Amino acid sequence: MPRPLTKLNGHGVPVGPLLIATALPIVILLVVKLTVAPIANGFEVLAHLYEISVVGAIAVSLGSCAANRRLEMRGYERIAMAVTFFVLVCVELTIAWTKPDALFFAVVV
Question: What is the C-alpha to C-alpha distance for residues 57 and 55, in angstroms, rounded to an integer?
């Protein structure tokens, strides 16, 4: 890790990434409020962004675990993770197809 990202606060949390993780959602909320909220329901737009983010994060996690042969798992557990991963990829693609604002957000991030 680059040195600026390794500085920890009193609770052992990296300060740089913590500031970024706090500032980025604030910026997104402000941008949505100023650009989209006057035109459409801002809450609905934020929900779309949340949907594509959460489904994508869970899919990446499941896919990574299913593909990692170093993890000790039973065969049926690995298969269940892989199947769930593929279902979530289909959900992610559906969200991307039906909600262009969420797709734009995912591509930018």
Answer: 6
Closest CA to 99 of 61, 44, 59, 42: 44
What is the helix (H) or strand (E) element at residue 76, kind and residue range?
Answer: helix 75-98
Dig out the tokens for 50 from the structure: 């949340």
Backbone angles phi, psi at 72, to 5 degrees: -80, 110
Count of C-beta atoms within a 10 Å radius of residue 33: 13
pLDDT band at 41 (very low <50, low <70, confident <90, very high): low
Residue with tokens 């949340």: 50
DSSP reduced 3-state for 14: strand
CB 99 within 8 A of CB 51: yes
For residue 8, pLDDT over 70 is answered with yes
Contacts of 47 (CB under 8 A, 6+ apart): none
Q: How far apart are CA 7 and CA 4, in angstroms?
A: 6
